[in-house]
Amino acid sequence: MKKALIVLFALFACALPLMAGGSGETTTSASVAEARPTLNEDGTFHLPITDEKTTFTIFLNFNNMPFDPNWAVWQELEKRTNIRFESVISQSNSNEDEAFNLMLSSGNLADVIGYVSAADLESLGRDGGLIPLNDLIDEYAPHIKALMEEDPAFAQYATSTDGNIYFIPKNQTMNNAEFWFIRQDWLDKLGLEVPTTVDELYEVLTAFRNEDPNGNGLKDEIPLFDRAGWKMPDEYLYLWDTSIEFYVRDGKVTYEPLEENFKTGVRNLVKWYQEGLIDPEIFTRGPKGRDTLLAANLGGMTHDWISAVDYNTKLTSDIPGFKMVGIAPPADQNGVVKERTMRYPGVGWGISSQCEDPVTVIKFMDYLFTEEGSNLMNWGIEGVSYYVDEDGQKQFYDTVLNSDQTPVGYLRSIGALYRVGMNQTGEYEIVSTNDEGRAVIELYEAHPEWYDQSQPPFADGELDMKYFPEDETRYERIMGQIQPYVEEKLQSWILGTSNFDADYDAFIKELHTRGIDEAIEINQRAYDFYIESSQNI
Ligand code: CA
Questions:
Q1: Are residues 209 and 219 in contact, defined by beta-carbon separation less than 8 angstroms?
Q2: What is the pLDDT of residues 200-227, one digit of tens each?
Q3: How far is the CA of 187 from the centre of ligand 1 (A)?
Q4: What is the pLDDT of residues 470-491, one digit of tens each?
Q5: Which residues neighbour ligand 1 (ion) by CB within 5 Å?
Q6: How far apart are the CA of 201 and the centre of ligand 1, in A?
């Protein structure tokens, strides 16, 4: 009923121009939308997108936050565009997967669908539940189209293995993800320089271990620690340019445990662990490990997100002089500086086959990529959450910086930084961190060459590529046999329960037996498609 009314209003509003144009055909809301340009003649975005308020249903639940049309940012979007979204999941829903499956089995799809898994969205697309957006982007979404042309990673992530675009990704404009952090006050106390190579790092960590930088007379320091050790057991292998993952070198997918660097990396890791340079509880410490070790004045160095510098403020009264600073990644054994953690585009939202007016929706999606739309999605509302200072720089108000939530948490509570197709600029991180945080973000962003852009996306240290449907099941089956085996072996070598060099030949043989060669081939096909899809836009 509501929708019928909207169509009527839209028809009415456009009846005159259509008649003047001599069209005698019956028309739908979609053709009304098609008749309106996305842009004005001067290149600005044509607002509002529809003359009458138009409502679409939406399925989205990001981090247990079901979409809420009452969020301030979305109220503002509604005011500007005349487009409103109504959530098909209740505000109390806390199980995204269950709600998604329930929607699919009901056969009633929301007009717009976002979901945590790109693979599931694409599979819904291949089954006809989401429509391909390629032509709609081409005709009605000039900002998205331009970004696809200038940012290969964005285009690649958007494109499914059948060549269709089923969702508009959430893009990331900064490279940096994690950084190397070290206790500057410990370096100063021991008269040490910042380590710039993996060998210098070994010397510094050894001094942290032996020379009592926390000054309590006990040899209790834990030089190198990591709260990700429980889920990314191979993170320190990056120091020797290796890992327990696939990695692309000169366009060829390799599996790193089969490569030479792996031997160097594991042998060093075993030695470092034996000598007490690495947290003895690295595999069991858990996500709270950083809090625990820093608050106890035991941790010396880690690889982590920007929030690592927050302890400079948090711990300043408990640990006088406490200072964590970001440093460049130490050069590996070949003298190469590389930072393996990177930001990649992530999943966003698509349009279902039951949506009656996809043209209007794609225009709305495009609006989020305009400067005004992007400001709203990253900064919230001007005059409420941010202002522009005398130098023309955007600044958050104290309501964002000093609320009882983190700045990101606050921005999400008003509907900004949500999991939709947008450009996440990351400026909120620069503005809301402290001087040490800003310094390390600037350092890493000033060195794009540290980031190997030829690598396919990794999420939490795991490959996140798109497979052809016939490859996907096979790949999962093979890696289900390989990955736990490799993680278990790596742990046993580091913990000293088995010997790496004694195990090595049998280990490699076992990888071949378990099908690693086929897994490499499947990844090569996926990677070749990944590269092609940036060239076909
Ligand atoms: Ca000590």
A1: yes
A2: 999 999 999 999 999 999 999 999 999 9
A3: 14
A4: 899 999 999 999 999 999 999 9
A5: 212, 214, 216, 218, 220
A6: 19
Going from the Cα of 216 to the center of ligand 1, the distance in angstroms, rounded, reads 5
Angle at 155 between CA 127 and CA 338, to 5 degrees: 125
Centre of ligand 1 from the C-alpha of residue 280, in Å: 16
330 CA to middle of ligand 1, Å? 25
Provide the 8-state DSSP code for 410: H
According to DSSP, the β-strands at 246-249 and 222-224 are unpaired
CA of 212 to the centre of ligand 1 (A): 4
| Lowest-pLDDT choice from 173-177, 330-334, 378-382 | 173-177
Length, in residues, of the chain? 537
Ligand 1 centroid to 311 CA: how many Å? 19
Q: How far is the CA of 325 from the centre of ligand 1 (A)?
A: 20
Q: How far apart are CA 447 and CA 443, in angstroms?
A: 7
> Hey, what are 178's tokens?
């994690």
Residues of the chain by 3-state class (helix, strand, coil), percent to 5: 45, 15, 40
User: CA 483 → CA 49, 489, 518, distances in Å?
Assistant: 49, 10, 14
- What does the alpha-carbon distance between residue 353 and residue 357 come to, in Å, rounded to a whole number? 10
